[in-house]
Amino acid sequence: MANKVIKILLIGLIVLLIAFLGFKYSWRLFDDKDELITFSLRVENTKNIPDSLMDIYTTVYPHHINKSTIQEIVIGYGSNILAGVVKDYDNCFCDEIIRDELFGYKKYPKALIRRFQSLRLSFGLESLVEENKCLNYYLIKEYEEVNRNNSSYAYTWANKTIFELTKLEFIEFLAIRNAPRYYNKFLNKDNYNRSMNFIENKIKNASL
């Protein structure tokens, strides 16, 4: 009986592995392959954020480094299934930029289909660019969006590119980026100070 159960489990694992590998490399079979390759060149050729700034980012968000699509699926969705609840989980950055730039809601109006498509293309993008290039591209685009926001006009880094920032300016960007108005230095100083202290303490503790 035990041997039969083990055999069934092994067969099930093999089937799952084959299905996963088929899904992972399926991007090569679809019509949007050329579009993905063109987009990957843009991501790959984007100038790298200075190491001094990326060191700060990786200190504050160490779990964002080398974050992959498979981690998103296994850790994110897997933990939700095991817990029986739906929790927020950060997507991998290849998936984030695929959904932000490569296709929108009109192309795949149904949420489930859209989710599968973004994961399929995310696997493809990961295979076409160097590690952490998606994170680099995502941060540059996020910074540009925050800097365009009216709430950033009075900061010393207004109208600067991310490549021109000092370390303190980059920390300030990290402190407000998730909600620029809520963490606005001038309109909501308490929120701003709390966010700045959180990031500065993480950096300080990491250097101890």
Descriptive overview:
Among the domains are: 62-130, no CATH class; 149-208. The chain is 63% helix and 0% strand. The protein contains nine helices and no strands. Helix 5 packs across helix 7.
List the helices and strands and how they pair.
Layout: H1 2-24, H2 33-44, H3 51-60, H4 69-83, H5 93-102, H6 111-128, H7 133-148, H8 167-176, H9 189-206
In brief:
The chain is mostly helical and 208 residues long.
| N- and C-termini, Cα separation | 55 Å
Q: Largest sheet, if any?
A: none
Q: What proportion strand?
A: under 5%
Which spans of ≥5 residues are poorly predicted at pLDDT below 50?
A: 83-88
Alpha-beta content class: mainly alpha
**Coarse morphology:** globular
DSSP strand count: 0
Assembly state? single chain
Radius of gyration: 20 Å
What is the average of the pLDDT values?
82
Discrete helix count: 9
**Percent helix range:** 55-70%
Elements, N to C (H/E): HHHHHHHHH
Q: Which descriptors apply to this entry?
A:
208 residues; mainly alpha; 0% strand; globular
